[in-house]
Structures are given as C-alpha cells and as structure tokens.
Specification:
The chain is built from eight helices and ten strands. By secondary structure, it is an alpha+beta fold.
Amino acid sequence: MIFALLLSSTCILIASATFNHLNLQSNQTQYNRFEYPKVGVANMTGGIVEVYLHVESLREITSETTLDFYLVQFWTDPRLSYRNEPLKVTGRVLPDTVWYPDTYFLLVRSLLYSPEEQYVVFNASGSVEYNRKVRLKTPCSPNVMLFPFDVVTCSLVLSSFGYTSSEVSYRWKGTGMYIDELNNNVDHIGFYLIGENIQQYDLDYADAKYSALKVIVYLKRKYSAYLMQVYFPAALIVILSWTIFWINLQATPARASLGVTTVLTMLTLATQSTSQNAKHVNGKVTAIDMYLWACFVFVIFAMLEFALSDFTIHNPKLGSGKRNTKTEETVINMGTSDEALLSDLVQSRQVNDKLRIADGNFKSVTRQSQTWRDRIRRQGVDWWGMVNSSARVLFPLCFLVFNVAYWCTLIFLIHKNDQIQVEAH
C-alpha cells in the first residue's frame, strides 16, 4: 500500500512537472490556477464553458433516477497556448496546476465521480477538453393523478458553484445531450424514452446571477402490466360478487361465504397495489387507487344487499317465516279436523252424502290455504326476490357507467398531458 502511494505521488509530480514545462514554453509569466480564463468574446470578460452529456444509462426510475453519464466540458484558456502537439492525460492522475470549471449539480441526492474514467486534452490553440464519468441520483416528477398512465420527467441542472455568469458562462455544445440507446435500454425497467429537452438560463442567488444548464428527460410508463395485474382482476372480482344475486335466497351460507371472499380479496388487492406503488407516487392518490377503491365500494354494496335481504327474510316480524308457519299450522289443523269428520261420517248412515260434503269442504279449505300462502309469499319472499332481480341489472349497469366515465376521463387527461409534453419540446 505504501508503495502504491509513493508511485501515485510520483506520477502526480511527473505529470505536473511535464505540464508546467510545456506551459512555460509559451508563457513566461506565472500561471495562476485560481484565476478563470478571460477570452473577451461577445462583450464578456470571463470564460465560456461548453457542456455535452453522453448518457450511458438510466436506472431505478421512481421519484428519482440513477444516471450514469459522461460529462464533457470544453473551454479555451489563452494561457495554455503553445506550439507543441496536443497533450492528453488520462486516468486517476490529472494535472492540478491548471484551472478547471467548478461545475456542480443542483438538487441531486447522491454524486459519485469515477477517478479512473476521466481524461483531459490540452490542444495547441489553448482549448481544453475535460471528460469524466459521473453517477448521480436526480429527482423525477411523475404525474400522480394519471399513474400508471403518466409521463415521468427527470431533470438535471448544472451550474458554476462560485463564478457568476459574467465570469464563467455555461452553454450547450451542439445538441447538448446524447442518450446511448444501444446500452441504455429502459424497456426492462418499464418505460419508453420519448424525448429530452435542454435549456440555458441564469440562476438568481444572493443578489448574483449564475449561468446554468438544464436537461429534462421524458419517460412514458409502460402500463400493460398494471392492466393485467390490477385492473382486470379488480373488474373480475366485482363481476364475481354479482353471483350473490343469482343464488337462492334461502342459501345463506353460500351467499355469505361468497360475499366475504370477494370483499377480502378486493381489499387485499387494493392495499397491496397501494403499498407497491408508494415508492412511485410518495403516498398520493392516483388513478389506479380511484379505480380499485371504487371496485371495493361495488363489492361492499353487493354484500350489504345480501345482508339486508337475509335479515328481512329470516326476521319473523319483517319476513314471511312467521306467516308461513301459521299457514302450515292452518293446513295441519284443517287436515286433522277433516280426518275426524271423515271418521264420523263413516259411522253414520249417510256415508255417501256426507263424504261428498266433506270432500268439497276439504278442497275449499286447501284452496284457501294455498291462496293465503301465495299472498304471504308475495308480501315477503317474492318482494326480496324482486329486489334481487333488480340488482342483477342495476349493479352491472352502474359498473358499466362507472367504467365508461372513468376511462373516457382518463383518456382525455392522457391526451391533454401528451399535448403539454409536445409543446414543452
């Protein structure tokens, strides 16, 4: 380890000495590395730094993203003009006796420079090219209301830390940014790359203006997985809950188990989706949350209809249980009296006439009991049967209206948001 430190120190001294020798060949005055270069271009007394970003990869896109890119900076320093061939220094050891831009990135969560992946080129004209690899986490802004059909915007802002815009001005070089599509495939992380936008402006800070550059990357979220894993299952659970209306009203255990199962399944799906999407939306309400909890309300209403109908049917004061019991008792009593009457008639002399009369009375009583039973059934069980029949039509109709309103509104908002993104380009 000590040998490595000695070797590194030696390389630094050799590189510094070599560069100082080349520099002093053209400039006899002492070089001050703390003084920014003065070029006097376009009514400016300071230097101009041109920036180009070569994005290698975007990873882990949530409320922030990890960017790997090469930061390439170009500037001209007249003090470094000499007639020799261009000098290129690469690797961990770079000359530390020259001026470098104090570029820093605003609002980044973490920043890492790779000392092995950098180089600097000093040309004979005094122009300098400084290239280094950077890894950082920059904030991203999803459109929460449209999640998971939103467009995520990830922005990166860079500026000079200490030099004002009159001293050092930042500008984009060429297109300003290049995203390597060969190595930067964002499909595997669930996004489409739809474009980028570069800006150049001044930042106002502490009564001074600082030159700044901003790049915005637009990423369209892939929503096919959400349709298959969340939307379709939620709709199928709601449809399954309607089978309660088709099961016999007297089959209370079957209806209860089906209703409880659909309610718990829908609740599990909604809570699981909310917890999984929390890292994308920071706990805010999204379009997918609205759909899931609306489906949960439909399932709850189906369960409430079952509870009310079952309570009414089995309640003696509200349903037909007590009245049916009385009817059955009437039929039994009338049947018992008819049997006694028949036994008496058999013992009498007028068997044929009295049997004829008894038979007519029995048929009359039976018809009356059946008429009373039908009337009670219409007042009790048949009324809730009519409610169940109405629910078979009303619930699907309401769910259909909700879906039409939901998807039409969502498509309109998505189209409007896409237009805003196009105008931003």
